[in-house]
Amino acid sequence: MTDHHPWRGVLVATALPLNDDLSVDFDRYAEHCAWLVGNGCDGVVPNGSLGEYQVLTPEERARVVETAVAAIGGERVMPGVAAYGSAEARRWAEQAGEAGCRAVMLLPPNAYRADERSVLAHYAEVARSGLPVVAYNNPIDTKVDLVPELLARLHGEGYIRGVKEFSGDVRRAYRIAELAPELDLLIGADDVLLELAVAGAKGWVAGYPNALPRSCAELYRAAVGGDLGAALPLYRQLHPLLRWDSQVEFVQAIKLSMDIAGRHGGPCRPPRAALLPGQEAAVRAATEKAVAAGLS
């Protein structure tokens, strides 16, 4: 991570600790951000889906960003600024800038299946905040696909500097590099980390370091460094957990793994329901196996 590219490296899409009454435990969140950086991660991405931003009040959402900045410094914090409207997303980007952040992450319009003109207008509006924008391509959840050609156009217009790629299609990395060689590719799904690292990714917006930061950071650095001898065995060990990042229940799974690893994962806000017994058993077994193997 550098001052000019604060989105590079391992940026953890932070889970948000909730109390038993489902209020946000801001002190615990501050400690979690500091713990992640102290254990090898480069920064955090608050107010992503893993941070349950959709079910926060505006006051909570703003305070989450301010809490992270106070804990680890604004250059290490890249908040998600997704919103139904472009004006609201820009306001969240401006709030991030006022809090001291150096970049923001932005989904395309996600209230409907937006066309290319709407996508371009959305990113243009948020770019006017003055902060560098990292696009977030999640066609599974948003129904809007930022295909390589569209990403190249967004980058060419000066609206985005990077992209968190969550499509799962690792072939896109090479097409993006051809069409927009200066656009930074960030790994967006934990279970394609090795494939996208080998393809030239400059960062990882990561889920599972919430539970196992040291081992995940070690895996990332070996992978981007081309040390497959170190990366591949670790990737195989972690993959039974990493693949949960691409499941509908990823928030519940990662929070459960945090609990098992000795962190506070805790509950989720509705409408997210608890894992089904079979899902819980699978996450628990994979996490206990990883911890028993010395991963942390």
Q: What are its keywords?
A:
46% helix, Aldolase_TIM, EC 4.3.3.7, 4-hydroxy-tetrahydrodipicolinate synthase activity, 4-hydroxy-tetrahydrodipicolinate synthase, lyase
Task: Give a structural overview.
- The chain has 296 residues and is of the alpha/beta class.
- It is globular.
- Helix 2 packs parallel to helix 3.
- The two termini are 22 Å apart.
- Strand 3 (104-106), helix 4 (116-127) and strand 4 form a beta-alpha-beta unit.
- Strands 2-1-7-6-5-4-3 form a seven-stranded parallel sheet.
- The longest helix has 16 residues, at 277-292.
- The protein has helices spanning 26-38, 58-72, 86-99, 116-127, 139-142, 148-156, 172-179, 193-198, 213-224, 228-242, 250-260, 277-292; strands at residues 9-13, 43-45, 104-106, 133-137, 162-165, 184-187, 203-206.
- The chain has one domain: TIM Barrel (Alpha-Beta Barrel), CATH 3.20.20.70.
- Its EC number is 4.3.3.7.
- Pyruvate binds at residue 205.
- Pfam families: DHDPS.
